Amino acid sequence: MQRKKSSIQLDEYARQVAPTDRLAADDLQPVLLGLFGEVGSIMSTAKKLHREGPDFTGYRIDTIEEFGDALWYFAALCRRLKVSVHSIFSKASPPRSYKAAPVADSLAMLPEIDPALLELGQATAALLTLKQKAGGADALLAKFADSFLKGLQAAKIPFDEVVAFNILKTRGRFIPADKKLLPTFDDDFEEEERIPAKFEIEIRQRKSGKTYLRWNGVFIGDPLTDNIEDPDGYRFHDVFHFAHAAILNWSPTFRALIKHKRKSNQAVDEAQDGGRAIVVEEGLTAWIFSRAKELGFFETSEHISFDVLKTIQQFTAGYEVEQCPLSLWEKAILQGYAVFRQVRENEGGTIICNRTARTIRYKPPKEQA
User: Fold this and answer.
1) CA 160/CA 81 separation, integer angstroms
2) Which helix (H) or strand (E) holds 222?
3) Which of 28, 31, 205, 318 has the fewest CB atoms within 10 Å, measured from its CB?
4) 8 Å CB contact between 356 and 362
5) 241-256: per-residue pLDDT in tens?
């Protein structure tokens, strides 16, 4: 690890993650508990490595993420104590230089990691004694920083990867993205291969209990039922695909429904609009729905659990939609479920989508003749 490079990153890191700090500025307790919890998560990852060995294929990414979360809380702590996180790490003894280990080496048992993480845990526990206006914090902070670097060394994880990953994760989750910078995915294609800039879909439920979709006066897709003993409204789940199309500008399922797949580019058609991509979106939609049922379909939710958003990130890895920040996914889910609840209550209605504005809204069904 080149210390100068990491120091420069820490200056930039502290600046970039500061806007993602939503905790009370005058209370150390939530930050200290958060830091303690994240260090515990690092240890939990090490435990899985011991238990599963090479079968723990997520070791490297999990370790990078957990160290990054711990660094975030440490930076938040330094911010409240009005101490430069860079100056604290500068006082820590730098570990010996190392290179990123190949995946096979990372999955091997790491004999140095246990004592290093125990030391990190002890340094974290010592921080719990800190007070908002108490002096003499620098020594405890420096001890944590020293143990943190040693832990990274033992885990064979480069510091710069931890910093970069955490910036991407936290800003993607908490900072609304600039609309001008959001991906659109099909602007370079002809109109018949693009998701329409604006579209309206009517959903009608007939006496049979089946739902039907109509777009531009034409029925599309297959009639749907809930396909479950205890009806839960999943027959209206196409609303979520419309939300994906409008807000994320992505939905292989919706493209297939309206026959707007990007067939002029064989690679895009197969990899992004093909059957596997459709299965990924359908599976993800069903999984989110199962979580939503437990929470009243997000009726009182202002945010989506970060664990849910992380799973979405894993589901969509390798597909174009992975370019969308998690904050945009959160918007798509919350707006989509707001419309879904209205459709479910009224057993139908019209879904009005604006892909350019990235919005989706509901219009009640017309009176039946």
Assistant:
1) 24
2) strand 218-224
3) 318
4) no
5) 999 999 999 999 999 9
